[in-house]
User: Fold this.
Amino acid sequence: MKKLLLVFSFYLLVLSGASAQDMSLGNNAYKAGDWQGAIDAYSAILDAGYENADLYYNLGNAYYRTERFGMAILNYERALLLEPNFAEAKQNLALANARTEDKITPLPEFLLARWYRALYCALPLDGWLVVVLVLAVVAVVAAGVMRFSGDYRWRKTGFIVLIVMAVLWLVSACCTMSSAARLNRHDRAVITQPMVVVKGSPDASGVDKMVLHDGTQLTIDETLDGWHKIRLADGNTGWLPVADLTVI
Amino acid sequence: MKKFLVFSFYLLAFIGCASAQELRVRAPQTVALGQRFEVRYEINDRCKDFRGPSFKGLSVLSGPNSSMQTGMTVINGQVSHSVTSGFTYIIQADVEGSFEVGSASCTVEGKKITCPGFTIKVEKGRQSAAGGGQGGGGQGQRGYSQPNAAQPATSGNIDSKSLFARASISKSNPYQGEQVILTYKIYTQVSLSQYQIDKLPGNKGFWSEDLTRDGNVKTYEETVDGRRYMVAEIRRGALFAQENGKLTIQPLDLDVLALVQRQRQRTGTLWDLFDDPFFNPTQAVEKHLRTNSLNINVKPLPQAPDGFTGAVGSFEVKGAADPVSGQTNTVEVRANEAITYRLTVTGSGNLMLIDAPQIKFPQVFEVYDPQVSDKLSRTSGGVSGSRTFEWVLIPRTQGNYEIPAVDFHYFDPATGRYVTKRVEAVPVRVNRGDPNAMKSVTSNKSDIQLLNSDINYIQTRPSKLTRKADRGRMPLWFPISALVFTLLAGVANFLLRRRQAKRQDVAGMRQGRALKQARKRLKKAAALLPDGDESQFYEEVYRALWGCLADKYNIPLADLSSDTVRQILTDRQIPEEQTARIMETLEALDMARFAPGNASDKMQTIYDQALDTIAYLN
Assistant:
């Protein structure tokens, strides 16, 4: 039995793909106050194809120190994408947002939608997968108890547990799917240029609708011919060239 | 200031008064419209408290000016003193008609002496200069300032050919907006002492700038139609036509005083002594002049290019922006600091009428309306100089921008074409603004609190880096674990089912149990065999055998009897021989149990029999 466990854990380790890179280079640069050096070190890891909520968070901090608040917001958002409950990232994001030029009053969100979003953001995707699995196991065990138990009391308990677990499993399955969808959505972006001009139509000669600055967040509704149709938190829409914003 | 005392002819109306001291008045009976004349009251005594008449309908230019003359005459040894007091008015008639001048009075030694009123007739004057008509009121420019000036008289001595005024224009068919010079000149063959412009023409349709230099009147000689004249340029202006089509420059009216050769006139009074030509060889004659009107044909400008702001003439343009950083020699500021951009137009033409060109500054600049300042010089050649437009720009965001190139269009009347002068674009570098300045003004309260906090420190906990490409993909452990668990569940389910089924099969369970139980009992009995406890031994054997039969054939305990057994054996089609043997065993067992005194070998026999039966049954 013990041997089996060892083999199993080793196999898990291999599958998780632990990399040889680490963030110590960047962390040391940051501690020394070399913000640009930290940015370079963290970015090198990203360029090599590896990522991590802490990595994005640290990179965001380095950008914040060099007063590039748009890039800081971008990286904090990326950290929160991977780990939605990252408290420090949320706090730093709020600070960076306070430093942006455009103050936009967001439209109020439907209460239930807000609650559901808070729910599925309570865990990262892997967490939800574990939850789903565990609930399924418990449900099946309860079913077995209900089916095969000799004692009438056990059967009753088994039945109740089964029902409860089934409901919970359904909810967590939905949360898992929403969490996965959120990761793959790629429809939110941040402006990282000092100033961009939003046009009313997808061409450079269109009428100027509004001027946005570094750090403003937007949602991309659709893409056409190298232009994104963007929507702000207050509902205003317009068109921006693809190069003018960075997708979270 | 030298006072000009001038004699002239005037018709005398001597209104006599009876008494020795009389207040006499000397005034003309008829005067010309616009002509200045003198009304003088005299009395041969010292008097005081002179009260003049009201000159209703006439303009009193000056007066009363009092004077006193004393004289001594010796006639035949007799010395007599004479005193004359005089009160003089200078009057001008503005309106035609007949005017009543009221009576005047003064007091001599307590006695009031009056002089009755009289009538003056004002008529339209005779022809005085070329162009006809009379001058208007006495406003306008003067050559010399003279309140007590000449005694007027229109004189036939001066004809229109010897003295006239002319207006001339540098170009009679200019373009709209083109600068043309208008000059007023007096042509004269006689000497002039002064001139005065009565009325300035209001040049409708033109913007005019005065170019006359006060004090210095240009004079030169010119021959016109074979006659030699002295020309005095009395007024010069720059005109810019604001409409196109036929425009007229109205004539200018002016009065001049010409000095002519005097003719002696005797009036028979004391004044004749002073009338000697020696003292005053000339006589001032007033003449009214009027210039010609000019017809100007203004050509409209051809189709102007986009961005034309009305400049007509010849110009150069320059653009410059401040502040310039000394190190990089480019314009460099921090966000929210001001830049001034100056566009200067230099040249000659209608500078005062040029509008600021529209410049499309980059969106990031906050632009304020341009300020205009002029540095103009007005010379005899016209209006020239420079006009500067100054914009204040405030960039709100950092970045590299440029003030775009400006195309300045002007119309050159010499070539009849538009000329475009370009001012090159100015690159501007805007650095990040001072973060302490102005940010808090636009934030709400929660933002202000946040601004004072700092960010959390970086994470230094050991953490695992995952591959970017793996993001969102199902981790391998999930399906594998699910599969493993499903297999386990299936196996468990299978096994449990089987067990359950077996449990439910009571008969089957009993059957399974039968042999086991029997064996156990026999074993016990066998253990008792050597000891010889008969009753217990038989008890066990009995239990073993009967128990085996009951379990195997599922006979309820209540029905357990020999007959039932025999019945079942028969039903089960056990061969008769075996059935008999089994019954025999059972009987022997019963007997052995209840009939004591069996030999020990009987126990063994029974044991073996029971064993055989059990073996056979299973």
Notes: Chain A has a mean pLDDT of 88. The radius of gyration of chain A is 23 Å.
